[in-house]
Amino acid sequence: MRVLITGAAGFLGSHLCDRFLAEGHEVIGMDNLITGNTDNIAHLAGRSDFTFIRYDVTHYIYIEGPVDAVLHFASPASPIDYLNYPIQTLKVGSLGTHNALGLAKAKGARFLLASTSEVYGDPLVHPQHEDYPGNVDAIGPRGVYDEAKRFAEAITMAYHRTHGVDTRIARIFNTYGPRMRLDDGRVVPNFIGQALRGEPLTVYGDGSQTRSFCYVSDLIEGIYRLLMSDYNLPVNIGNPSEMSILQFAELVNRLTANPAGIVFKDDLRIKGDPQTRQPDITRARAILGWEPVVDLPHGLEMTIAYFKERVR
Ligand code: UDP
Prior knowledge:
Elements: E1 2-6, H1 11-22, E2 26-31, E3 50-54, E4 69-72, H2 79-84, H3 86-107, E5 110-116, H4 143-163, E6 167-172, E7 175-176, H5 187-196, E8 201-204, E9 210-212, E10 214-215, H6 216-228, E11 234-237, E12 242-244, H7 245-256, E13 262-265, H8 282-288, H9 296-308
Parallel strand pairs: 1-2, 1-4, 2-3, 4-5, 5-6, 6-11, 7-10, 8-13
Antiparallel strand pairs: 9-12
């Protein structure tokens, strides 16, 4: 296949490039680099089966020749990033998804949308099953991301139903691993960076809010299987193993032997920060035969090793 990956220089996009190339496909990577970094794809430079185009997909996308699949992964994805780039986040989820779908339609390509657990907002149902419509505050600080992704899902289904585009929707839950940005503000790089510098870990609020962390290789496997499936409705991809942020902080401190402990930062918790989050992956198990295999301590060790080389 000849595959276009938007957001190719980002955390997930760059791992997807690696995976598709390893499977023998040709990859065109696109990124405007506002939150992505070419360091993540530097090892692919010079390969004849990989092309990188620096481009903002909120503008009309032109690709010469055939395209068999479009994977739309471009978007700021951490709360800090989408608060820094609210308009760009809304545009890449709306205009960017429209353009990527238009390209898929014109080329007769499959399309896969990187959606998010944020479509469930601060959920009132636990764990979150794909049929749960969510609890999102459109005008809250997280609304720019949540509503962009909800629009992206809506237009993806509309292109499927109206134009017959062969679409997929992956609802991606918290994912971690090498190539996350140390300064992206998310809890995994924040805590590991703090621990490696011997600083206390900053728990926002009382740390009773929960998350369920999926290692990147598991996530990529789920995405790959979803693209290769023929399933058009949304599929949760994430690790159901749930814990509180306080427990997570204690685990990071233990794995890094950080003696500095924990500080509670009430004021840094963003309004609408979901109190619970855990994927129901019944659908992914049934349709993709997929479930995560990397446990958190092992995944964190690989992530800590990566950040150790980069922390200052
Ligand atoms: N969080 C925290 N300390 C940090 C960064 C984040 O306690 O230094 C919390 C945050 O309030 C949220 C959870 O960790 O409840 C996960 O935050 P993240 O930014 O990773 O992404 P989210 O899952 O909220 O999209």
